[in-house]
Amino acid sequence: MGTWRYGVILDAGSSGTRVYVYKWLNPARARKDAIPEQLHTLPELVTKKKWTLKTHPGVSTFGTNPSEVGEKHLAPLLNHALSHVPVDAVADTPFFLLATAGMRLLPEHQRARLLQEICSYTRETTKFQLPDCDLHVQVIPGETEGLYGWIAANYLLGGFDNPQDHDHGKGHHTYGFLDMGGASAQIAFAPNATEAEKHANDLKLLRLRTIDGVGEEYKVFVTTWLGYGANEARRRYITALQDAVGESSKELPDPCLPSGLHLTLAGKPVPAGHENDPHLLGTGKFKECLSQTYPLLEKDKPCLDEPCLVGGTHVPAIDFDVNHFVGVSEYWHTTHEIFEMDHLDKAYDFKTYQSRVSEFCSQPWEDIEAGIKSMKWGKKVDETTAEEVCFKASWLINMLHDGIGIPRVGLEMKSGGKNTTQHLISSAKSKGFLDPFQAINKIEGTEVSWTLGKMVLYASSQVPPAEDTMAVGFGSNTPGVATPTDFQYPGGKQFDTPDDLTNMTPDAEVADQQDWHDKLFQDSPKRVPGFLLFLLILAVATFLILGRERRNALYTKLRSIFGLGPCRRKRGPTSTARFGKYDRVVVDDPEAAVSSANEFELQAPYPHDFDSGDEHSDDTEGTAGKASGWATPTLHNTTPGTGLESSPSKRGYFGDASGLGLGPAWTAGLMSRVDSRERLVPGRSRNASPTRRSPNLGLGSFVKESVD
């Protein structure tokens, strides 16, 4: 097993399937390299934008033709993943395809055949680790999707690793999670202590494991509302409009469309010659739109288990003093892609947002069309987005405030006459998200995706457990039961990873040593420079091993071959002190030493090229690091050019080269000139050496990291 572990996961949604590739340090290497403060943290996952790819349509469209799903749907996704996972790591790379809303709607027999075909095709065409089809290729319920999202959000925000920086009061340091897709919506949060005890049987028991092998346990409430996603809510809304005006009416006035816009009942432009077919006519009355979408919450449904939120669904009481929520997917797109284009980091402000939506939706459609052509609202806003945004905004507002009960910041919440939004931003920057709700897309440059949460759970399970540490996974929270009967393990096969690299098995040790070698000699644009660098290092090492007498003889011979005069010894910035048969270099002038050592600098550029795998993402690569404070949508690169970017809370891994034991580049070069001679002198104290080897990194590892 090499230095890095990899994982591949496919998010099979209703409109398409997206592949994600993640990597993290081998647990043994991570434990060895970590400073004490980092040992009790979760594994650090890394991903990049170019490691993702999405294909259309959704995998569920192959329900009636499962034999075609491989070549027509999976092939490009698998090939993309294989292009980013090293060949020698494929067999140890777990593969997951987890399907959501679209597949849930298929008949059972179609769903079973399709999942089996996906698993068989992947096994036949790749060597990815896929030991259990039922666990690695499955349709996950909305509750599981919500739990994975909760893990991802708290992992990126720092709620797990830096609880002291996220103290919300009452011993609470995690964040609530809201997700809204096309078909369903999810909520996940850890209730306060009182509610957690009162509703213990309604919670999920979640166990993770940190780098030091110690387990962490959380109790989370998760539920899903099927039919409460933006598209399904819109379908229910159109049905309600038809019932209100009657079947005889051909024109349905729609306050959730801009004034003058004509659309079919399916939300498409009315074809020529079909003007007399039933269709929608926009009236652009946003207040009326809000009132007509409110009944879709179905708050009048009977609540069989108090308390309830929408649709008669039981949810423990939410304590907004300690429960602060982040929202992704439609919560982000609908609040930011039009109305917050110039304020992407702005805290959600109900009063300001509703005012902007109302102003937009009251415009005549021809004015909105002109604004789209002039890119008034940015490049991502097209006609389809503009046609849908008024309904989506009204649904989001109702769902957030009347459904879930999020306080209306800017209306219900005051802050002593201060600008409320500005006040929230200041608070959030000092201690993370502390407002009741904040829409987000990325944290520290990494997309908040439930797939990340699944892979964090898996990577956590691969850490060797400390004594008496429970298994990683999740299941029902049954008081008095250590491992519930429905406990789900993350999947894959458990590797016997040693506590440190010194105890690695021979095969693992060889693999780790070969990691940099494979990077150097595999087919890539860096192959030739890497090979030349290797030869240079080999030549220098051989020259040093020859010994002083042989070097002098060789030097004299070379000078005679080229017709040069006798060699005279010149005193420079360095002098030599004799120790028996060998010389030790003593540095008198550090600046001269730097100049000399630069001849052997082993740095190599790290590429910063990205694909457009995420249509809602900017050009950043993501290190899925955990933020210790305010999490911004951009990745902080503290070491330009190294490619080892990370969030501030993880500088010891990726944010600072010195955290890996690299030290300045000149130290590595000087070490290559001096260290081989030091090792030839038996019994010599290394403390007397003017240049010490980093405890974490040998020469081979340095080359590996430089060209990775």
TrEMBL record:
Q: Does the keyword Nucleotide-binding apply?
A: yes
Q: Which protein family is it in?
A: Belongs to the GDA1/CD39 NTPase family.
Q: What PROSITE patterns does this protein's entry cite?
A: GDA1_CD39_NTPASE
Looking up Gene3D superfamilies in the UniProt record yields: 3.30.420.40, Exopolyphosphatase. Domain 2
The organism is Tothia fuscella
- Composition skew (Polar residues), residue ranges: 634-649
Catalytic site positions: 145 (proton acceptor)
**GO term, biological process aspect, one:** CTP metabolic process
Q: Which GO terms describe its cellular component?
A: Golgi apparatus; membrane
Report TM segments: 528-547
**Binding residues for ATP:** 182-186
Protein name listed in UniProt: Golgi apyrase
